[in-house]
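[step 3/7] fold_predict: job queued, chain A
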Amino acid sequence: MSDLKSKFLQVYAALKSELLHDPAFEYTDDSRQWVERVLDYNVPGGKLNRGLSVIDSYKLLKEGKELNDDEVFLACALGWCIEWFQAYFLVLDDIMDSSHTRRGQPCWFRVPKVGLNAANDGVILRNHIPRILKNHFRGKPYYVDLLDLFNEVEFQTACGQMIDLNTTFEGEKDLSKYSLPL
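[step 4/7] structure written:
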């Protein structure tokens, strides 16, 4: 495993621990274990390309200058916000599409004793993102821009999902509904 990926995974462990011990919510042992299971099943399961590309992009913006430990941590944290965001949408998309597998395993909502609780789990995943941003970026001049960016991407993705769902009703597939003005 590359050094960058291993550092990225270490930051996941730190962020997960912060969220599971967030003083804003008094977890029972059962609820903490549930959220930990939600996170470990859904967030780090993919190739992590989205999150890792944040670190690579930041390095490019630094024009060859070495990143210090704080910069690496923040780049990883922001990368994990993107991975959390992806997990949120995939959990909900799998429910909407009645999918069976994701990343070579059963979709979260198909795991025994999860079912449609997965919809709330997706909402929890989405709500972890501003908590991570608040914990690590609140004092940064670009904090509000990050919040706005995640909100805008969520809106655009949700609108795209609506179009996907509305154009693929079983027996009514009509790809002419997909159009973009040129």
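[step 5/7] annotate
The first strand starts at residue 101 and ends at 102.
The mean pLDDT is 93.
exit 0
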